[in-house]
Design brief:
heterotrimer; A mainly alpha (120); B mainly alpha (89); C mainly alpha (163); A: 120 residues; mainly alpha; 4 helices; disordered C terminus; B: 89 residues; Helix Hairpins; 3 helices; 83% helix
Chain lengths: 120, 89, 163
Amino acid sequence: MPVLLELVIALLLLTGALFTLIGAIGLVKLTDFYMRLHAPTKATTLGLGAMLIGSMLYFTQLHGELSVHELLIALFLFLTAPVSAHMLAKAALHLRLPTIARTSGRELVADDDASDPRSR
Amino acid sequence: MLTLALQAALTLTAVALLLNVVRLLRGPSLPDRVLALDTLYINALALIILASMLWRTTLHFEAAVLIAAIGFFSTVAVAKFLCRGDIIE
Amino acid sequence: MRTKLLPRPLQSLALLLTWLLLANEFSLGQLLLGALFAVVLPQLVAPFQISAPRVRRLSVLAGLVVRVLGDIVVANLQVARNVLGRNSQLRPAFISLPLDIEHDVAKVMLASIVTLTPGTVSADLSRDRRHLLIHTLTTDDCDTLVRVIKQRYETPLREAFEC
């Protein structure tokens, strides 16, 4: 395998793994649910994207023919990550999970709850 | 060099998985745990991809696609359940 | 004829491409099989489909895709900095973003873009579907943020779909 290609693949894998780790660190470290939501939805998605590109290059080189099915997973993840994040945020708002005190604009959430006929 | 990078990436991803489990156990709320599970399946996906590169096989690809699909649908289903106490409207 | 055989040409094309990606090989057999799916599946799910907006300007949409892909990378560097920095420096906030686009599908696209791009996650759509509730990690200036989102993402979406 050409050294340059190997270097690129190694770099992609390591950045991918690093972002995945950062997403997980954020999940543990940040203080309230809404803040924690940011880390995995962004970092983990791009982390996996970088790894998949690395895998694409690797298998294309290894088998001598274009390997593109990784693109399918990457595409799927980029489409689904925002949707699951949005659904989870909706669930958290519905359950009225606490936000940390210095969150500004909390009255917007309260307004939304008051107008919700399901809540009393 | 590539093997080394693969092993390093595998280690980092494994640590990430452990951190997800920490959040999964600590909670404190249900959406927190669901978010941890959501991240967990994506990280497991990363682990599968790295392992298949290490073992030089593309056989695991179908498993990765299935995990991606099932993980997403279950996250949405559970989130919907938390919102309404019901999945099918 | 188009309305009979392929009610949604773009969707059929996407299905065909998805099949080829999944099979990971380009041969006549796979192409035929994919084409079969591309014709049959849209007709099978037709009763469940909501009306999609027509793409008027493909070039604007393509430009938006490239811009969003670039912003995703920026967003990740920023979120990495936020995560690795001190928690006490973060100023989280909820912001209400008034929506000007009309079509539901375009709103979904905007909400997804907001989630993937720097600093923001879309959290809820108001009951009248006119405001999107956004959560951000760092608030310097809410009005600027709203203006930037509208200008960078909503305007191109509106131009692309003309809605």
